[in-house]
Amino acid sequence: MDTRESKTREEEKEHVLNQRIPEDFDEAEPQRQPEAKKPASGMHKLLPVVIIILGVIVAGFLIFGVGNSGG
Q1: Residue 65, SS3?
Q2: What CA–CA distance (Å, rounded) separates 6 from 15?
Q3: Does the reported pTM lie above 0.70?
């Protein structure tokens, strides 16, 4: 059984055209999107520190040969 809403050709065409119209930024409502206004939290500041620490650890393994089973 088909439960779709039946539309005439004109209604279908109007629907498709309305879907293709880009958002009107003059009428946008950023006040309804408070997460878009918030500055990023502190986690993004931690990433470079983690990368540097991991780099130092890897360099230490390479330079000192820790884990080298060659004796």
Answers
A1: coil
A2: 12
A3: no
